[in-house]
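Schema walk-through. Below, the input block comes first and the output block second. Nothing else is stored per chain. Lengths vary across the set, and this one has 430 residues.
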Amino acid sequence: MRGKSARYLSAALVLVMTGGLMLSGCSGSGESSGKTEIEILQYKPEAATYFDQVEEQFNATHDDIHLTIDSPNDASTIMRTRFIREDYPDIIGIGGDINYSYYVDAEILADVSDYEGMQNIKESYIDIAEALEIVPTDGAYIVPYVANAAGILYNRDMFEEHGWEIPTNWDELMSLCEEIEAEGILPFYFGFRDTWTCLAPWNGIAVDLAPADLCRQVNRGEANFTEGYAEAAEKYLELISYGPEDPIAYGYNDACTAFARGESAMYPIGSYAVPQILSVNPDMNIDSFVMPASDSSDGNTLNSGIDLGFCVTADCPNKEAAYEVLDFLLEDENIQAYIDDQNAVPCKEGDFELAPMLDGMTEYIESGNMTDYQDHYYPSEMAVDAQLQTFVINKDVDAFLAKFDKDWLRYNRDIIRTVEEYEEENGSAQ
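--- output ---
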């Protein structure tokens, strides 16, 4: 651990972990039948079939390493529980969010800056990973694998039929909503009964209007959310006014189904919703565009973050074998297979074929004009998704922002203390 600052974060991590199940796991790397055992524990059960195939293909083509990939439904809980027991998998597959930040600070992860495959990862995603660190840390601790993208999905056939143009700024988006309503069509559908869906339009708006490092500024005592999120909160309410009269009455599945059936022209959600939508209407012609929350088109950026990355744990006894596994995962054909299966965005440079519903975001992906989700910095204890749901009901901007600031100081006090101590010793953590 890195002195007192790491101890604070480690203590916080333990508190998160102690609610988990005390489950047994694999023993990690070792020698079995002359082969080096490598275990991956990854957190995306929806991709289990893909990883089963990867495991089978790797083991069929490697004589010296045996790979096991576990994709349980409760991977995050199992992961944290095993960390407490010091029973570490060799590699973990996680998303780029606050949990990754905790793991870096607690020194659970190995420095992979010497891994040659990092040279092929897009710089934008390396930057996103670095920005997630509580305080600046030497080295690299995650190999970004795939990302997702969030913005506004739209019914391409409906847009072409009515001659609607893709908006490039906030005024154009609001004018478009008026045009759509004039045709007797609902502009947006929301599924806010499932609180996590409240975050999708929030992130899309905040990414354009708030500084990308706002959360870090707040941790340093240089900003607050009352000012930093004021415009985002106002526009969030304006956006939802063009949805169902009671957006809380519908859940995620309801919203996906309604959009698939043509009950709205648009749906502010991530690319991850497309499989659910197509399961209702396989022939639906879906495209997407970035949330144009800025008053100028020049201020737009794609809301994208690391959906899955691989981290070698610090206790992995055979780092060379782990890197060989990563090499296999990062082969173009394997990444393309994941993209096809999950409608994902590759973090690796290369000529990959993206899903057609990402056509409207391609220029942002190719140029690297991408900014991480604001909620990747939020501690889970704050339950910002539930706060947003309450905000949708009460529509009280001042109360929402005041609670955001109050709860941030309450649930982030260990991180704030870590930042303070770092700056006392090293100067600004910018």
